[in-house]
Amino acid sequence: MIPLRIHISKPQTLHAVEMTTAYQAVKNDDAAHLFDRVAVVGADHSLLETFWHDSCVIAHHTLQEYRQQPTSCPTSSTRQDDDFHALLLMPENWDDTSSSSVVTSLQAFFVAYMLERWMALVWPEASTCHALQAATHKKQVLHCLEARKRKPRPQIHFLKKKSHEKENKDNNNRHPSVEAADDL
To answer: Are 50 and 80 in contact (CB under 8 A)?
Structure first.
């Protein structure tokens, strides 16, 4: 079995959510009005904690088939700086080149899911896009976990025959009509 360690940083994820919400608020035509409504500020972190916990639960269930140890999933009684950790045991034929893609896609899922939940509250028109992104990233995680190495094809080694043996064989296998044409 091949071990796969996954670590998703909570502070990095929250920072990505904050930056994305600020960017989406500013790029809109009604930026002054939307920034106050859409951008995440310090008072909103308790709500983001709930979204973080929900995304951890979804990731926990998504990775459950491959877990060796339970994933650490923060609850309301744990510290606020808990990251998401998982140790997965992958089969021997798993394509380990996709390990970085698993972590990257899972990180993107966390951000997209949290954005979808946040936007559903403050700007419902924008939440659909993030919901689709979250679903896409979740599928990508599963696709990377299902990646397998191809079995190597058996190599067939042909013995080289001497050139005169090949010529004799070619002459013996000639079609009768070709031999008749040679006689003319």
So the answer is: no
